[in-house]
UniProtKB/TrEMBL annotation:
Transmembrane segments: none annotated. Residues 23-89 form the RNA polymerase sigma-70 region domain. This is RNA polymerase sigma factor. It comes from Hymenobacter aquaticus. The keyword Signal does not apply. Residues 118-166 form the RNA polymerase sigma factor 70 region 4 type domain. GO terms for molecular function: DNA binding; sigma factor activity.
Length: 184
């Protein structure tokens, strides 16, 4: 029978390698999904995952048991991935951001023919800033104030980036589904 997260955490606090391996096996897949949402490549997501676990293991004394351990670990994965993303932005070529246009769609737009993989692919193709704010807000549940703090941007910029991400995503999904756009 698999050990509980609490038992694994306690084993990690006592420096037991088997507990560390167990915690990695239990949370690695989930946290890799978090890292993939924010890192520009799988290799960088793998780096972020490794750094996340290093931070988890070295900062266990900071986990006070207020809320689930998984949520605490997820927050570390998000901030670690965002920090790597920021480093990538600073050292790499600046990607041109696409300007989103207001999209007006007819009632009853049939997106049924789009697979989940196609939608995820479209989200992943958004400019990095848009994608990051969309993920933090819609998937991770952060407020615009928290996103601003995490990314070093204003709350208004976070709201603007989310709005543009939504419009651009909608536009791309319409195109993917071969649905005509209606402009006023």
């Amino acid at each position: 029978m698999a050990e509980s997260i609490d038992a694994l955490v306690e084993g990690c606090r006592r420096g037991k390698p088997a507990a560390q391996r167990g915690l990695y096996e239990r949370l690695g897949y989930q946290l890799m999904g978090v890292c993939l949402r924010y890192c520009p490549s799988r290799a960088e997501a793998e780096d972020a995952l490794q750094l996340t676990f290093v931070k988890i293991f070295t900062r266990l004394d900071q986990f006070q048991g207020q809320g689930p351990f998984e949520a605490w670990a997820r927050r570390i994965a998000v901030t670690t991935s965002l920090n790597l993303w920021k480093q990538h932005q600073q050292r790499g070529p600046q990607l041109a951001t696409e300007e989103a246009h207001d999209v007006h769609h007819p009632d009853g737009t049939p997106f049924d023919q789009l697979s989940a993989d196609e939608v995820v692919r479209q989200i992943n193709s958004l400019p990095p800033g848009y994608r990051t704010v969309l993920n933090l807000y819609a998937i991770e549940g952060y407020s615009h104030a928290e996103i601003g703090e995490l990314l070093g941007i204003s709350e208004g910029t976070s709201k603007s980036q989310l709005s543009r991400a939504r419009h651009l995503l909608e536009q791309r999904l319409h195109r993917q589904a071969h649905i005509p756009h209606y402009h006023d």
